[in-house]
Amino acid sequence: MTDKVLGVILGGGQGSRLSPLTQTRSKPAVPIAGKYRLVDIPISNCLNSGIHRMFVLTQFNSASLNKHIKNTYHFSHFSTAFVDILAAEQTVQNAGWFQGTADAVRQCMHHIVSHEFDYILILSGDQLYQMDFKDMIEKHIEANAEITIATIPVTGKDATDFGILKADEENMITSFIEKPKTGLEDWVSDTGPEMQGEGRNFLASMGIYVFNREYLINILNENEEEKDFGKEILPRAIEQSRVLSYQYEGYWTDIGNISSFFEANLGLTDEIPKFNMFDSNHTIFTRARMLPPSKISGTTLEKTIIAEGCIVQASRVEHAVLGIRARIGKHTVVTNSYIMGSDRYQTLEEIQSETDKGNSLIGIGDRCYINNAIIDKNCRIGNDVKINGGSHLEDGDFELYAVKDGIVVIKKGAVLPSGTVI
């Protein structure tokens, strides 16, 4: 795999549906599960599958993503492995930004083809899943396909949010429609007894593709007006080429908005989570931080994931994820929330100085109540603060926080004075 396959991870666009988490960072750089970044998921899937050469294509708010990749993915001097950033750049041939997924690959193709490979694996940088790409590529080769699309069975309710396709008895894709709103009955597929038993009768594209090298070069050069794989390139390819459906039935979620991001993180606290971080065959790689173990004092913990370096004195933390260096004060209750933590510790001198001035410290203060919330990194939540998200709150974007689907998102670095109520 190492020699035959090159991975390309798409950094995504502006990520407005995941705002305000994407106000200062790109989607793949958003922290997930307390200690990882979203981009670690596709990179880890590649490494676990024996694919050790990857490009990450970036454009919006890419500084933190670039820094994370530079500080994380180091390989032996005697290895050909790499994870390199390809940022949008002006050239003599193209002075514009990436206009879509296919356009991003097209603009970077002169860098990509300088490497030897037979197959190119194109991935999204904002999905949560564990997949063995070796099996997918082997099926691609066996079927003598020119493109393979990873597909997942979905219900009729979810089908309207995806590209839906149909395949023949050899799993070759015969037709494709982007986000159908009507006529779903014409797109029912034989997804197998287990999937049909769950009402998952439609095959949705996962945005994961394998292309033969020369085929991809040719199809991108044929029509430079086509900017997107899902909407333009693939529908045309299906009509004239061998395009294989690789059906995947494991856990997969597209982190498209605040609600799906929130559910994906809190789902990790389940007794048997759908996304298994505790699987030694599917290691999730990330930056190795030299942090102390977390310290818990007088806290009742229930269904909670705690990353390294936390200092927790809360009275109760339930159904929550606490990120690196999270600090929570005495008599505080945190439920149904993701606390991202912070990038640094305050020194004892800083803490004393801020306390003397009556300022809030980095972290969550004493006697607070936090429910249905995401607290982004480096926030300062004072004492006696009450944040109670839920359906009773209207969506809105405010100076220090936003409300989306009842979830209160405290913006990165926000300072909430003591006594604040949301």
From TrEMBL:
Pfam families cross-referenced by the UniProt entry: LbH_GLGC, NTP_transferase
Assigned keywords, A-Z: ATP-binding, Carbohydrate metabolism, Glycogen metabolism, Nucleotide-binding, Nucleotidyltransferase, Transferase
Keyword Transcription: no
GO biological process terms held by the UniProt record: glycogen biosynthetic process
SUPFAM superfamilies named among the record's database cross-references: Nucleotide-diphospho-sugar transferases, Trimeric LpxA-like enzymes
GO molecular function: ATP binding; glucose-1-phosphate adenylyltransferase activity
Its EC number(s): 2.7.7.27
Record-annotated Nucleotidyl transferase domain positions: 7-270
NCBIfam families, A to Z: glgC, PRK02862.1
Assigned protein family: Belongs to the bacterial/plant glucose-1-phosphate adenylyltransferase family.
Name this protein carries in UniProt: Glucose-1-phosphate adenylyltransferase
